[in-house]
Inverse folding.
């Protein structure tokens, strides 16, 4: 008998119903638990996709050095896949990311370079590639990022809702999740509403961004998003804590932001099936103080 390796268990995550937080409503609010992926986040999907497709094209081969700018989850996922497939991984990340994220990357054998923000991280990654220090996968412009969600996340949601989904809500960072899932769901039912979540102006939410125009991810197509909801850091953190205390779902701040938007949307519609993404697990954020001690 040939047993599977850990990469075979990326995807097919649970889709569960919120019991209390939606209140008295005709809507069904569902969340997809991406923290159940092996490295603990939705980013396991594009990390595997980007490396496997690059291998298939002959762009990289085991033993090569890979470089990526990351705010955390993609870096952890890439470090895991690099460990599975046999690559050296250099990750460049903002220094204000949580200690758990840094520790996770190092545990998988990655080398870290800390910089002041994501824009600097992205510029440095490309500079290092130009200097011949490794290959940048570039989650921000790599079509294999949204392709992962077109091939897996979207079909799983369609299957698990038996095609009854009416709204898909996702926080936007690299935008790979919302781009790929939107592309798939729209092929099945163009009436499905795609809702993106971004921080309010001046607000910081880990994993969700309002990109300056010059740094807007090249994979992002605004035509694939029907609506954008702005969420504050306070709303995201409060919803994150409520998910743990009221629903037993222990997740991170970006997931709190996505569910806050889903609940706001639920208050506006009736007889809807709303699906939101729980991006990762809450244990990645304990040292930041967002959960009560």
């Amino acid at each position: 008998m040939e047993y599977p390796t850990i990469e075979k268990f990326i995807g097919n995550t649970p889709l569960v119903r919120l019991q209390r937080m939606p209140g008295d409503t005709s809507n069904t609010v569902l969340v997809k638990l991406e923290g159940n992926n092996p490295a603990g986040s939705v980013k396991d999907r594009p990390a595997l996709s980007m490396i496997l497709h690059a291998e298939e094209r002959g762009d990289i081969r085991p033993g090569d050095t890979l470089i990526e700018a990351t705010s955390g989850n993609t870096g952890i996922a890439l470090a895991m896949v690099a460990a599975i497939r046999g690559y050296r991984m250099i990750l460049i990340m903002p220094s204000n990311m949580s200690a758990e994220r840094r520790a996770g990357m190092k545990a998988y054998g990655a080398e870290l370079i800390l910089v002041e923000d994501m824009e600097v991280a992205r510029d440095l990654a490309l500079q290092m590639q130009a200097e011949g220090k490794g290959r940048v996968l570039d989650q921000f412009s790599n079509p294999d990022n949204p392709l992962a969600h077109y091939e897996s996340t979207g079909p799983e949601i369609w299957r698990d809702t038996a095609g009854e989904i009416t709204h898909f809500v996702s926080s936007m960072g690299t935008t790979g999740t919302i781009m790929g899932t939107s592309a798939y769901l729209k092929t099945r039912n163009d009436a499905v509403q795609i809702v993106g979540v971004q921080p309010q102006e001046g607000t910081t939410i880990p994993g969700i961004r309002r990109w300056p125009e010059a740094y807007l991810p090249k994979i992002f197509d605004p035509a694939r998003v029907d609506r954008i909801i702005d969420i504050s850091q306070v709303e995201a953190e409060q919803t994150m804590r409520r998910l743990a205390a009221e629903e037993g779902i222990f997740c991170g701040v970006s997931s709190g932001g996505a569910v806050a938007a889903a609940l706001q949307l639920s208050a506006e519609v009736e007889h809807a099936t709303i699906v939101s993404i729980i991006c990762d697990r809450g244990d990645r954020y304990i040292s930041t103080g967002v959960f009560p001690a």
